[in-house]
Amino acid sequence: MNAEALLKPTLENAREKNRAEADYINPDDGLLYCGHCHTPKEAYFPEKFRAAGFITHPLECECAAAKSRKEEAERKEYERRERIKKLRQRAFGDNSLAAGWRFEKTEIMTEALKKVKAYVDAWDKMREQQIGLLLLGNVGTGKTHAAACAANALINRQISVRFLHTTDLVQQMKGLHREDLEEFLDHLMRPQLLVLDDLGTQRRTDFGMECIFHVVNRRELSGKPMIVTTNLSLPAMRDAADLTERRIYDRVLMSCMPVLFEGENFRERAAAEKIKKAAALLELDQL
């Protein structure tokens, strides 16, 4: 059986499937038209094919094409949302609190937080220039919150991120053999942004400091940005007495733009507000 004999029944079958009850033949051109949008549902083959008996072929009318475009847009949006969901899970793991922080949900946009948002808005240039952020300030001033907001904003743009507390980082590296350690470090280098939270709070053992150094050094060599948060001051980082610490901080200062977080302790204020709410719920004057 030749190709023509196979193709003709296929075209005829497609034409019948393409036909709906309200459709009609337009007497002006002899083609099948949609009974709803009144646009063609088939078109003529070029003249050279008609001699072989191939007269018309199926065509999407305007309403069918609109439906197809809508379904395609919905499919792409679903895939986008699923990808973002996976990126967020990979970035934060079980840290659901940080995974929920957003710039747009923040009640007070401090000057420091505005700078972090500006960094995110200029991400393409920052990434190209291999520039990261160093968020400094006292406990509770919003550094971790700002870093998580930045991470989530980038994830919403389908940019891969990994968000790790330095204590958790050292714990994960503990007990890894050389090959496993190399694989772990390679894994940390893959995301386009790495966030290291609370640098300096990890245990200052030789092992812990070497773990942090390996990550920071490898990340700098990868040419990919980091966002680092710390309670340490710039002078403390610059004048660190311990050699390993100084090697870590030198690399962070070399690759990350410092942003100082000042002002009130937001955690203390949040705690005070919770106490007030609890007192009101219990109908007490105070707790």
Overall description:
The relative contact order is 0.10. The chain has 13 helices and nine strands. Helix 5 packs parallel to helix 7, helix 8 packs across helix 10 (206-222) and helix 10 (206-222) packs parallel to helix 12 (243-255). It is an alpha/beta fold and 287 residues long. The protein is elongated. It has helices spanning 3-18, 47-50, 62-92, 96-99, 111-121, 123-128, 143-155, 166-173, 178-189, 206-222, 234-238, 243-255, 266-281; strands spanning 24-25, 32-33, 42-44, 56-58, 132-137, 161-165, 193-199, 226-230, 256-261. The strands form three sheets. A five-stranded parallel β-sheet has the order 6-7-8-5-9.
In short:
By secondary structure, the chain is α/β, with parallel strands linked by helices.
Furnish the topology, listing elements before pairings.
Blueprint (H helix, E strand, L loop, with lengths): L2 H16 L5 E2 L6 E2 L8 E3 L2 H4 L5 E3 L3 H31 L3 H4 L11 H11 L1 H6 L3 E6 L5 H13 L5 E5 H8 L4 H12 L3 E7 L6 H17 L3 E5 L3 H5 L4 H13 E6 L4 H16 L6
Parallel strand pairs: 5-8, 5-9, 6-7, 7-8
Antiparallel strand pairs: 1-2, 3-4
Helix pairs in contact: 5-7, 8-10, 10-12
Alpha carbon gyration radius: 30 Å
Number of helices: 13
With strands numbered from the N-terminus, the spatial order across the biggest sheet is: 6-7-8-5-9
Shape descriptor reads elongated
- Low-pLDDT ranges: none
Largest sheet: 5 strands, parallel
Task: Give the topology string: H per helix, E per strand.
Answer: HEEEHEHHHHEHEHHEHEHHEH
Q: How much helix is in the residues? A: 40-55%
Percent of sequence in beta strands: 5-15%
Mean pLDDT: 88
State the end-to-end CA separation.
Answer: 90 Å
Extended strand count: 9
Helix/strand-derived category reads: alpha/beta
